[in-house]
Design brief:
The protein is α+β, with helices and mostly antiparallel strands. Helices cover about 15% and strands about 45% of the residues.
């Protein structure tokens, strides 16, 4: 069971170079059900996810580079690339996965935190650089983003922008 909360974030006050990072590239073979392939540095994974936003089943199957390449031809929509920083939180009991998106999605920044229980997720107090929670907004899933047409991306990025002109 994957239990996570997702936020739009502004990590500008952090020294990201002090945290481990991964380069990710992922595409969706299906978004209903969610079937994703991901390259994480030099690892390759096929992931199947059940329905749900804060809590859902997640199954991961390792792939070879060759299998990943063959499945890449089956990807629907856009391929998402991002740098993921792994930031220890609450004395290492949690990890913030901070995603900085690339390409047409440059400027989009997510912070995701996985929890051992729903109670822990509900009790979590986000740091001040987490700007807006989007856990329950299906438009902010990576699967939904992968289905955006290039012409829809600017409006999505505007919706995702946080600041005095767009507080929600």
């Amino acid at each position: 069971m994957e239990i996570e909360r997702k936020y739009l974030a502004d990590p500008s006050g952090l020294s990201l170079s002090s945290y481990p990072k991964k380069e990710l590239s992922q595409g969706y073979i299906s978004t209903d059900p969610v079937i994703r392939i991901r390259r994480s540095d030099e690892s390759y994974i096929l992931t199947v996810k059940s329905d749900g936003l804060i809590a859902r089943q997640e199954y991961e199957i390792p792939l070879s580079a060759e299998q990943y390449e063959r499945l890449s031809d089956k990807v629907e929509g856009i391929c998402i690339s991002k740098t993921r920083y792994l930031i220890p939180w609450e004395d290492g009991r949690l990890t913030i996965e901070l995603d900085l998106f690339h390409g047409a999605l440059t400027g989009l920044v997510y912070a995701e935190v996985e929890f051992p229980t729903l109670e822990a997720a509900e009790a979590f107090t986000p740091p001040s650089w987490f700007l807006r929670e989007v856990t329950e907004d299906g438009a902010f899933t990576n699967a939904a983003i992968s289905r955006l047409a290039p012409s829809e991306i600017p409006a999505f990025l505007k919706k995702a922008a946080c600041g005095p002109d767009n507080p929600n």
